[in-house]
Structures are given as C-alpha cells and as structure tokens.
Amino acid sequence: MKARQDGQATIERLWKPLFAAIDKSRLRRAKTGFKQGEIVQLRFSSGEWLGSVALASGYRRIEQFHLPALGDWRPYASHMAKWLARRPDWYAELLSGVWGGEWLDWLEHAGLPVVPNEQTVHLWRQKAHCTCEDGDPFCRHVLAGFLFIVEEMQASPIDSFRFFGLHVQDFQDSVHQAMHKLWQEQFPDGKIRDGDSVHSSAEILDNVPWENLKSDTPLDFLKTSRRFRLLFENAEPVYLNKK
C-alpha cells in the first residue's frame, strides 16, 4: 500500500476495491439505507463490530449484525501514543481531519490495518452474521455498516479509533502525557535555546517484544524538531481530563 494523497477522501479511496467487488444492486440498497440513517449504532466489542439497523417497511424492526473488527489496537495503544508524541505533525493532521500519508504508512508498517485486504474480506465472508434473511454474509446491513465506518473515519480520524477498541479520550490523554514527558526529557528547565533540537535518540520508546515497532523505519524524526518547537514553545502541557 503506497503513500497516498493526504485528505479526507483517502480512506474512501482505499476502501474502494472492497465496494467495487460487491454486486451493484446490493451496494445501491445498502447506500440508500445508510443515507436514510438506518444504522442505529455500530461499536467495537471484544474484537468484533456489533451493529444495529432500524428498518421501516410496513412496521419498524431492528436487524443486528456482527463480524470480526478490522483490527484491535488495544494492546498497542501506549506505543502508538508515544510515536504520535514523537511526531506531533501526524497528531495535528489527525486532529484536523486528515489521514496523512506518513501516518498511514506507519500504521501499515506496524501491522495495524485501516483498510481490509484479501484475507480480511475472506474472514468477513466466513464470520459475518446478520439476523436478516439474506443468505449472503455481505447483506445490505453489513454493507451499510462498512459505509458508516468509512464515513466516520473520513470525518474524524481520531474519533474513529473507537472502531479499533481504543477509548479516544484516554488515548489522547496518553499522547499528551507522552509529549509532556518528551518535552521534560529534552528541555528539563523548560527553555529552548539556539541549537537545541528534539533528539531522535531520546529514550521514550519502551523495549517491547513487538518487532514492527523495534525495526528500522524510513521516517526521519529529526525533521519534527521545528514543528515540535512551534507546537510547544511557551505552552503549558494540556490534558483532556485534568482533575
């Protein structure tokens, strides 16, 4: 998966191969239901996506579906937070509604998918289940769920982390705390002087048994130093849930 154009259309474009393989009439019905607001809820629970769809056809009824989630990021949340602390430009992009190309490349390198591949689609076809009478695992309700997730991921990348098992406010607190820790390590007295920079050798990443995080990456952390200054010079640390 190569670097993509930055922008809110990125996720939709990356999911396009999945929808292109779906029967057009089936997908059209799913889009109609989705646009009419039939998705009542869709949430992550124990590694699965659970969805409820409200239908109004003569009488109102609820269909429910479940399938394996695209990914479970919970075991890696602290490591993700530390990497975003090292790359505040990535974090700023996410907060502004953009899935940046470098962030997407990093997620792929780390083994944290945001786009289904052939293996995922095969698993979904085996495991997806809906209470409707459609025998196809990709019924209109499951497809509407996919459309809902894609729209949410486009509209607010950071909020869509909930679809991967993360509590968004807690995760953002972790990012801010990691940023504050890095700031204290690099500038103990809180002052930036000429010639100072955010060193890529700062020991902020734990020694974790996760090969993708420990392996070499093409990312140049030194280029973040200027952005780091712009974001944090003369600023107090920010916590979302400060008591």
TrEMBL record:
Superkingdom of origin organism: Bacteria
Keywords in alphabetical order: Metal-binding, Zinc, Zinc-finger
GO function term, MF aspect, one: zinc ion binding
Start and end residues of each SWIM-type domain: 119-150
Name of the protein: SWIM-type domain-containing protein
High-level lineage: Bacteria, Bacillati, Bacillota, Bacilli, Bacillales
